[in-house]
Amino acid sequence: EGAYSFAAMEARWPQVWEDLKVFTPADDGSRERRYVLDMFPYPSGDLHMGHAEAFAMGDVVARYLRQQGYDVLHPIGWDSFGLPAENAAIKRNAHPSEWTYANIDTQAASFKRYAISADWSRRLHTSDPEYYRWTQWLFKRFYERGLAYRKDSPVNWCPKDLTVLANEQVVNGACERCGTAVTKKSLNQWYFKITDYADRLLDDMSELQGHWPERVLAMQRNWIGRSEGAHVRFVIEASDGRAEREVTVFTTRPDTLYGATFFVVAADAHLALDLVTPEHHDALMAYREKVKALSDIERQSTEREKTGVFTGRYAINPLNGEKLPVWAADYVLADYGTGAIMAVPAHDQRDLDFAKEFGLPVRAVLDTGEEDPAVSGKATAGEGTLINSGTLDGLPKSDAIPEAIRILEGQGTGEKFVNFRLRDWLLSRQRFWGTPIPIIHCAECGEVPVPDEQLPVTLPEDLRGEALSPRGTSPLAAAAEWVNVECPNCGRAAQRDTDTMDTFVDSSWYFLRFVSPHYTDGPFDPAKINDWMPVGQYIGGVEHAILHLLYARFFTKVVHDLGLLAADEPFSALLNQGQVLNGGKAMSKSLGNGVDLGEQLDKYGVDAVRLTMIFASPPEDDVDWADVSPSGSAKFLARAWRLGQDVSSAPGVDFSTGDRALRSVTHRTIADAAELLDNNKFNVVVAKLMELVNATRKTIDSGAGGADPAVREATEVVAVILSLFAPYTAEDLWNVLGHPASVANAGWPSHDEALLVQETITAVVQVQGKVRDRLEVSPAISEDDLRELALASENVQRALDGRGIRTVIVRAPKLVNIVPA
Ligand code: ANZ
Ligand code: ZN
């Protein structure tokens, strides 16, 4: 059959697989279903090493479950809206779709070469009108439930991309995409009310425990940020022409109310303008200008010197009637809690720093046994007993908190409150290449949703190049013909909403569309959706720990609440693959350490690259391409493949007569591999497979050679297990062994428990120096057991012929010498 040639295999098998529809699920209920999904790619350029790793992992899972007899849904599609396409279009005076679909074609060809076992008939692109029609349809359902709404608010604004960013897209105060420092701007924007789901998003994580990486759950928990405390209402005294009013604060420490010595509102909140007296107005305005430039992180940093301005007003402490000066400062955030706090410098370090800066009083109300914070400069935040606190005196902190809440509730000045860090999801974007928001604005009727039967609202095709340049308003606003429509309600002249949706909206439900991607009566076929959902194994990078995964969970819960889906969590299990590094560092243009996937594939072949990705480390760990050996993988694959050349028994031969030792290794490998695969220990499976290949080669080179049925058995097992990692080599090997395609459907071999028991060894039994019997015994047999076995042998008894025994010399496990009397 000649030499191992990956190029020949890569040329031969894809067409066969496609013709046989090997990877299209039967979807008929004949077998138990499993849904395996890799986070779908963004079409920027060709596939890179990161894709190669993640998709190799996902493919192992999909191929393994198929071998185990499941009907496996393993689809592929593209997350194809987004800024890079738009920026490329501006540069090249093109339409974003040209760049997008050209890249998708390139990636699709690479995925096919990479032999991803995907059902290509379900391919989807979120930028196709037949997809985003249903994104719009879902938006409308959210809108009808009050889960999509518009409000004016200060938003994160990237001055370079001229677009709004979600909180999640601001990293250390900078635009996640371009690194420019993010500023605030007040705009009328669309939001999804994800905060309505904060409790459920948090509580339902208990279902995911043990099936999702703990660090992802921790990041989500922290992002949702549940804080238990109280709302407390302070009356703000009338002053300088300003009326009396109430301001509510959120505090986790109502027990410290007697220690409040001043009151702070977020300087950038509208509340600050409402409160400030004319005398202090100019100072506040000047201060607000400075605050605008700061990120939330900078504002909350404990390192920074505290700044702020007095508003000229006083708040009345509802528990003791004290007058507290109201300040405006940047360390209080406008969009957390209520945007106002009672400051307790003795027990909160930021308040203490502020008090020292502005000479405000410090009063300890909790005796923690530590030095007085007013002296030490260190706020005491731990456990203690209440002091200086009226009726609360003497209570431990844990009792004082509920007691303070009880008093507030009795007076009607406060109540228990649970606050969340999670904000509503800002979804509108002033960019072109996204899903248009299906709303029409009418002077008479207000917001009017586009009727379902008029969906999709498609993007205009004539906007391209320069016309897409960011200018702070959506480029869609310039498409007069597109914008100006009749109001669906009253028929008068009206305008389309010109914002498009954050692309995270598109990716929040694509896993539902894959179940029935060509369905035309809804986002998915209601008769099919519960057959497949939830996704049994989701695979992707940890960079999506918050954004995408939280949004997808939110969408799934809403779709569940709409009565369209039984599941209320999208992904039962999650696997985060590590990164592919080079020289210990992430690959980057600036470091010049990028490795080109195409070059690696050309040099070593697809299978060797895939196998290297899997073998390098446990799936969650990083792979350093500088430390691995794709050429070593290629050598191993050739070695495995050559076994097939040497098998000389026919398919279907009875394995039971084969070499016992090799059979034992084979069956042990089957059993171990299944258990390892069930636990995502893919790299160890490869190591086991290498041992099996070595053992098989050893048997071929000795004894009965390639004719031994155990050699065929072992080689067939090699082919089946190898098919998870190196599909071309495995298919070719399977073919050489005389089996029809495809090895992907061979079925997981069953192992024989009896063959797992330890291999036996032959013990020789002599009587008076003459060999009388041979016994198959365990290598670990004890002297006593072996003596007993030897004496029980019929041949030995016959040789003794009734004589007594003088001595028995036992050398376990190999020899017994019996000396008759
Ligand atoms: C009085 C107090 C006394 C507080 C004390 C803490 C310790 P978490 O746990 O993160 O929810 N706070 C409330 N709203 C704020 C805002 N918009 N910007 C900055 N800080 C704000 O934090 C809740 C605590 O953070 C609240 O409890 C409040 O200070 C402050 F010994 O109230 B505390
Ligand atoms: Zn109207």
UniProtKB/TrEMBL annotation:
<feature type="domain" description="Methionyl/Valyl/Leucyl/Isoleucyl-tRNA synthetase anticodon-binding">
    <location>
        <begin position="659"/>
        <end position="782"/>
    </location>
</feature>
<dbReference type="InterPro" id="IPR002302">
    <property type="entry name" value="Leu-tRNA-ligase"/>
</dbReference>
<dbReference type="GO" id="GO:0005524">
    <property type="term" value="F:ATP binding"/>
</dbReference>
<dbReference type="InterPro" id="IPR015413">
    <property type="entry name" value="Methionyl/Leucyl_tRNA_Synth"/>
</dbReference>
<feature type="region of interest" description="Disordered">
    <location>
        <begin position="371"/>
        <end position="393"/>
    </location>
</feature>
<dbReference type="Pfam" id="PF09334">
    <property type="entry name" value="tRNA-synt_1g"/>
</dbReference>
<keyword id="KW-0030">Aminoacyl-tRNA synthetase</keyword>
<dbReference type="InterPro" id="IPR001412">
    <property type="entry name" value="aa-tRNA-synth_I_CS"/>
</dbReference>
<feature type="domain" description="Aminoacyl-tRNA synthetase class Ia">
    <location>
        <begin position="422"/>
        <end position="625"/>
    </location>
</feature>
<keyword id="KW-0436">Ligase</keyword>
<dbReference type="GO" id="GO:0006429">
    <property type="term" value="P:leucyl-tRNA aminoacylation"/>
</dbReference>
<keyword id="KW-0547">Nucleotide-binding</keyword>
<keyword id="KW-0648">Protein biosynthesis</keyword>
<dbReference type="GO" id="GO:0004823">
    <property type="term" value="F:leucine-tRNA ligase activity"/>
</dbReference>
<keyword id="KW-0963">Cytoplasm</keyword>
<dbReference type="InterPro" id="IPR014729">
    <property type="entry name" value="Rossmann-like_a/b/a_fold"/>
</dbReference>
<keyword id="KW-0067">ATP-binding</keyword>
<dbReference type="Pfam" id="PF08264">
    <property type="entry name" value="Anticodon_1"/>
</dbReference>
<protein>
    <recommendedName>
        <fullName>Leucine--tRNA ligase</fullName>
        <ecNumber>6.1.1.4</ecNumber>
    </recommendedName>
</protein>
<feature type="domain" description="Leucyl-tRNA synthetase editing">
    <location>
        <begin position="221"/>
        <end position="406"/>
    </location>
</feature>
<feature type="domain" description="Methionyl/Leucyl tRNA synthetase">
    <location>
        <begin position="40"/>
        <end position="181"/>
    </location>
</feature>
<dbReference type="InterPro" id="IPR002300">
    <property type="entry name" value="aa-tRNA-synth_Ia"/>
</dbReference>
<feature type="short sequence motif" description="'KMSKS' region">
    <location>
        <begin position="586"/>
        <end position="590"/>
    </location>
</feature>
<feature type="binding site">
    <location>
        <position position="589"/>
    </location>
    <ligand>
        <name>ATP</name>
    </ligand>
</feature>
<dbReference type="InterPro" id="IPR009080">
    <property type="entry name" value="tRNAsynth_Ia_anticodon-bd"/>
</dbReference>
<dbReference type="InterPro" id="IPR009008">
    <property type="entry name" value="Val/Leu/Ile-tRNA-synth_edit"/>
</dbReference>
<dbReference type="Pfam" id="PF00133">
    <property type="entry name" value="tRNA-synt_1"/>
</dbReference>
<feature type="short sequence motif" description="'HIGH' region">
    <location>
        <begin position="41"/>
        <end position="51"/>
    </location>
</feature>
<comment type="similarity">
    <text>Belongs to the class-I aminoacyl-tRNA synthetase family.</text>
</comment>
<dbReference type="InterPro" id="IPR013155">
    <property type="entry name" value="M/V/L/I-tRNA-synth_anticd-bd"/>
</dbReference>
<dbReference type="GO" id="GO:0005829">
    <property type="term" value="C:cytosol"/>
</dbReference>
<dbReference type="InterPro" id="IPR025709">
    <property type="entry name" value="Leu_tRNA-synth_edit"/>
</dbReference>
<dbReference type="Pfam" id="PF13603">
    <property type="entry name" value="tRNA-synt_1_2"/>
</dbReference>
<dbReference type="GO" id="GO:0002161">
    <property type="term" value="F:aminoacyl-tRNA deacylase activity"/>
</dbReference>
